[in-house]
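Example (one chain per record):
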Amino acid sequence: MQIKSEKSGLEYEPYIRLPKNYTQSNKKYPLVLLNDRGYSVAAASGIVHLMAGRDIEDVIIVGAKDMTL
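Predicted structure:
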């Protein structure tokens, strides 16, 4: 799936990362929105690493991969 920006004309593929037990729980999770396209990959990787080590609670990560640059 791709989403086209009306303002820039660029097309983006959504990036969504759900916690492991998301579908098996009614728990509400914090949402982290990454709005600078592929530049947030390092931030997302760090967040996933911290969640894996249980240093922070699980979160939902939503961002966009730039498909036209």
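Caption: The chain has one helix and four strands.
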